[in-house]
């Protein structure tokens, strides 16, 4: 088993020269996404990488899409991982000494990279929202932006222009239970429920809770969908209109559409920013063969999607890792974390096995303190990489695609795209680089997550 590196240069996250597609020739002021469609009765939303988002319509000057640097991507990724670790604390030693515990915020930093476009209100207005299995609330910026709004690609949603918008009242059960999704206790203003969510990087949204018609496709319209109507928003959302949380919380879209789609959804993340992936609600098509692993019964991970990792193979050989390494840490799968984080002992054993399969290629310097194993493959367009596979409970083997094996910093520096956690007690996170092109189905009532190879490009 070996992967050809030939495809890597075309499929890695080489965004630097990416022009916002629809601005070419200046014909359009912003990206017009392809319409979402219906496949065998299931709403199928197009998924784009954030780098595809064009500058906000009132953005002065540049015609280039906002393209974060590798340094920024990886720094925000570490901040996100830190916020997940502070929410899931496995260490009994620390838990006993509660004063040393970091503050547990309900909100996980949203460095999330992928967005979908939905319609909100009547008549419907299109909005591009980051989707994220580590987030719980759906929110969008709302007029009249009484605090402040950052610039976004589409016009800001105006609830007063929607005939189907309703405020959520303070005494409703929805309001009173909203803190698990927002991370803060709700407030009350003129009998309307207010919410506030602050993220680890200083980004924040606050406003009213409301409900309105959510249009996924022309025939899939969810009435009375509860979301945050943010009138005071700041942060690094880079032109998206807000967020769509897919986590395990009563307020997430997954729970709110339980009647329609039975808390089952799947996605496929595209290998480059110029390709389109998909986010589908409802059970997967019979024609797609998924291998299922049970959701973990580890209580710590229950607001996330927990998995039980059993091991790692490198080019078909099982890496020697004590099983207790996995059970001590636990594992979650997350669409918003970029780089997979492993327990320190699992990482070093896997890395050493990978290095043994790469001895014929010249090494490159490490990338800061983030990536310690890098290669200069600029002279080896056809290099073959050892295949890394993740093994999950239920004998499920998920091979990491070639696009997710190395992270290309520059032409002469491609780094093993995994990182160790700081502590053996920190939860392992199966991140989105290692999920590229793989179909991932989340089946809450079936208590399982499934994987299928090569579902998208
Ligand atoms: C908006 O939020 C910021 C903090 O994010 C706060 O300082 C400011 O007072 C808020 N403004 C209003 C009008 O609520
Ligand atoms: C929702 O509540 C806010 C604050 O009380 C108010 O300004 C707005 O007019 C209300 N909207 C509707 C449709 O009731
Ligand atoms: C991986 O295994 C295949 C055979 O399954 C072998 O041909 C290839 O050389 C191995 N690659 C490395 C890098 O060890
Ligand atoms: C890489 O493989 C392609 C297709 O097999 C071939 O055309 C090309 O010459 C190879 N390049 C090198 C440097 O070996
Ligand atoms: C693995 O899955 C089985 C159910 O299929 C479950 O009973 C067991 O607890 C799971 N856990 C671990 C750690 O493998
Ligand atoms: C790698 O490429 C960069 C930019 O092209 C260059 O500045 C650097 O010197 C190269 N490093 C090595 C080790 O060749």
TrEMBL record:
The keyword Disulfide bond appears for this protein: yes
GO molecular function: aspartic-type endopeptidase activity
Span of the signal peptide: 1-27
Name of the protein in its database record: Asp domain-containing protein
Domain Peptidase A1: from-to ranges: 114-452
Family membership: Belongs to the peptidase A1 family.
Organism this protein belongs to: Cephalotus follicularis (Albany pitcher plant)
SUPFAM superfamilies: Acid proteases
Entry keywords, A to Z: Aspartyl protease, Disulfide bond, Hydrolase, Protease, Signal
């Amino acid at each position: 088993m070996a992967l050809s590196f030939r495809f890597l240069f075309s499929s890695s996250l080489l965004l630097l020269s990416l022009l916002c597609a629809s601005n070419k020739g200046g014909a359009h002021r912003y990206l017009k996404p392809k319409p979402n469609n219906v496949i065998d009765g299931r709403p199928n939303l197009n998924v784009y990488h954030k780098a595809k988002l064009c500058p906000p319509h009132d953005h002065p000057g540049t015609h280039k899409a906002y393209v974060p640097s590798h340094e920024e991507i990886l720094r925000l990724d570490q901040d996100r991982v830190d916020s997940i670790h502070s929410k899931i604390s496995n260490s009994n030693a620390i838990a006993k000494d509660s004063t040393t515990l970091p503050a547990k915020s309900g909100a996980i930093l949203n460095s999330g990279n992928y967005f979908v476009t939905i319609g909100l209100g009547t008549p419907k207005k299109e909005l591009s929202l980051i989707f994220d299995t580590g987030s719980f609330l759906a929110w969008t910026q709302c007029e009249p932006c009484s605090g402040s709004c950052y610039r976004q690609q589409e016009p800001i949603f105006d609830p007063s222009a929607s005939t189907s918008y309703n405020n959520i009242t303070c005494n409703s059960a929805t309001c009173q239970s909203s803190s698990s999704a927002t991370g803060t206790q709700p407030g009350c203003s003129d009998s309307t429920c207010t919410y506030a969510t602050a993220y680890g990087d200083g980004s924040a949204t606050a406003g009213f809770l409301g409900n309105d018609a959510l249009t996924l496709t022309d025939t899939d319209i969810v009435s009375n969908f509860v979301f945050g109507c943010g009138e005071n928003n700041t942060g690094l959302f880079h032109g998206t209109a807000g967020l769509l949380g897919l986590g395990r919380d009563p307020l997430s879209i997954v729970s709110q559409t339980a009647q329609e789609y039975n808390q089952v959804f799947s996605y496929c993340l595209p290998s480059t920013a110029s390709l389109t992936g998909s986010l589908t609600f409802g059970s997967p098509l019979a024609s797609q063969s998924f291998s299922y692993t049970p959701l973990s019964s580890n209580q710590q991970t229950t607001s996330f999607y927990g998995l039980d990792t059993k091991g790692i193979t490198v080019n078909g050989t099982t890496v020697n890792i004590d099983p207790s390494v996995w059970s001590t840490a636990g594992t979650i799968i997350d669409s918003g974390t970029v780089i997979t984080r492993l327990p320190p002992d699992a990482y070093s054993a896997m890395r050493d096995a990978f290095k043994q399969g790469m001895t014929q290629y010249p090494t490159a310097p490490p990338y800061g303190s983030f990536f310690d194993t890098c290669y200069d493959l600029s002279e080896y367009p056809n290099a073959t990489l050892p295949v890394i596979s993740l093994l999950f409970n239920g004998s499920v083997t998920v091979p990491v695609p070639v696009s997710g094996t190395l992270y290309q910093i520059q032409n002469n520096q491609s780094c093993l795209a995994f990182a160790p956690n700081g502590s053996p007690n920190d939860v392992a996170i199966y991140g989105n680089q290692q999920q590229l092109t793989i179909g991932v189905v989340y089946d809450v009532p079936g208590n399982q997550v499934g994987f299928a190879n090569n579902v998208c490009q």
